[in-house]
């Protein structure tokens, strides 16, 4: 049952990935509070290794952090979103995956 719901979410985002990316990729330019929060986050992790944007969608948050000098990657359940993120952010690594089962140690 849970896997079926996850599959529905994944396929739903795959269907709308291009339109979602078109509408959302530049959203941070209209969100000064979000940018300030991301700037604070960037300063707090600058020397701690790679930051991962989980549920990255088209990679707009990873893009912003990368622009602040943060070593960042992205992960999303939707392969369609990962394709958009890779296309829009060629200098950042993006991987399909499930944030409930990360391929890293705790």
- The low-pLDDT segments are none
The SSE string, one letter per element, is HHEHEHE
What's the total count of β strands? 3
Please work out how many helical segments DSSP would assign. Answer: 4
Question: What is the first-to-last residue Cα distance?
Answer: 27 Å
Strand count, sense and barrel status of the largest sheet are: 3 strands, parallel
Question: Could you describe the 3D structure shown?
Answer:
The chain is α/β, with parallel strands linked by helices and 106 residues long. Helices cover 52% and strands 12% of the residues. It has a 3-stranded parallel beta sheet with strand order 1-2-3, covered by helices on one side. Helix 4 links the parallel strand 2 and strand 3. The longest helix has 23 residues. The model has no long low-confidence stretch (mean pLDDT 94).
